[in-house]
Amino acid sequence: MKKILKMFSLVLVIIAACILPMACSSNGNSIQKVTITFDSCGGGEISPMENVKGEKLWYLPTASRDGYMFLGWYTDLNSVKTFKAETVINSDITLYAKWAKYLDDDCDYELNEDDTYTITNYSGNYEAIVLPEEYNGKSITVIGDNAFKQCSAALIFLPKETKKIGTSAFYGCNKLKSIELPWCTKEIGANAFNGCKTLSYVDLCSANSIGYQAFANCTNLKRVFIGYVETIGVGVFDGCKSLTKIYCYPESKPSGWENGWKGSARGTPMWSCSTIGSLVFQNDDRTNVVGYMEYKGWYSYGEIVNDIVIDEVQRQGEDGFYSVPITTVADYAFSNCSHLNTIVIGENVEHIGKYAFYECTNLTSIIIPRSVTRIDDYAFSGCSGLTTIYCEAQYKPDNWSSNWNFDCKAKIVWGYSGNN
Q: Can you tell me the distance from the alpha carbon of 182 to that of 179, in angstroms, rounded to the nearest whole number?
């Protein structure tokens, strides 16, 4: 009996030795795993996670830290490149938490006549800050003159009921990269952001009044969206040498905008612009995308838009919402969008204009669907990170310019079907 049991045990071992390696994966190869390590940078400890190599990570934990707001996970300590769930993981990686400090004791306050408060001074030295919504149980509605002048913060979240930003309130904050203005912000004082040299994008949808030189000498400012602002002073964008995109909601210059309102900025105003999501359209034509908004909406915690889908947008008609296909990517639409990692061109797109993706340096690959029958000069010029362009067309269509990929060293794959 013992001999039979020993033989039976030996058979089980042999069977297990044969079956287990095959069970590791459907193709007989062992499953390789990668480890995701979390550095909470002062927050509570988070255990490492394992994920199958080459597959998406579907879940990311939320870090916590007393007195701070969690802004997300980044792949570097300098919080340059965000990391999101649904990202394919091919190797071990360490993610770093980014925080914004909730302020209170670092600010001085003054009671207004309407029983709200003004922040009059800030004495802290934090990289990212969240201003309080209330003081002594009353709303904070004003950022006072010179209150944050020459502060070192790179990211600032204003109180949601901020109605006014005073003269020189953020003057000389040369590390300030992102600030989001609440919908109720109606007045921006003279020199409010003058000299904020790293500020790259401003959304001025809600303001009624912008004082002279409010954004002067913001030398890294590339895109501005201006809503129906009633009055704008002289030289608001004076010295903004990188400003090439000025999207304006009005059909033409309103009478309350001073002559010389944009100062020495190079950009030519584009009138009758509107936005859907991160995409900018002109003249109520939703089939032609003319630009892109760098930051996500209001109170999105300074999150930069890294991924764009150019396919279709939703419009509202008498019978509800309906889809409008995007057929054209306009000249210069996404030029110098260095933050974009992924651009998906939908199957409705037929025409890509000149310099449309010029110097999108973070792009590594892109698929051009068969529907694109025309590409103009230098559409992908300067895309230094682009390694492969996958074209569904079997060969270069007649209406693609001979310079469509000029100065782009990416490999061109013709006849792409998703399998090759």
A: 10
Stated pTM of the model: 0.79
Q: Which of 220, 241, 271 is the last residue of a domain?
A: 271
Residues 65 and 151 in one domain: no
Q: What is the CA radius of gyration of the chain?
A: 26
Domains of the chain: total: 3
203-306-54 Cα angle (round to 5): 165
Q: What is the pLDDT along the chain (420 residues), one digit of tens a residue?
A: 444 444 444 444 444 444 444 444 445 567 899 999 999 999 999 999 999 988 888 889 999 999 999 999 998 888 777 887 777 888 999 999 999 999 988 999 999 999 999 999 999 999 999 999 999 999 999 999 999 999 999 999 999 999 999 999 999 999 998 888 888 999 999 999 999 999 988 888 889 999 999 999 999 998 888 988 999 999 999 999 999 889 999 999 999 999 999 999 988 899 999 887 778 999 888 889 998 776 544 334 445 567 788 998 877 677 777 888 999 999 999 888 877 888 899 999 999 999 999 999 888 889 999 999 999 999 999 999 899 999 999 999 999 999 999 999 899 999 998 766
Token output for 290? 């003319």
Note whether residue 293 is domain-resident: yes
How far apart are the C-alpha atoms of 341 and 357, rounded to whole Å? Answer: 12
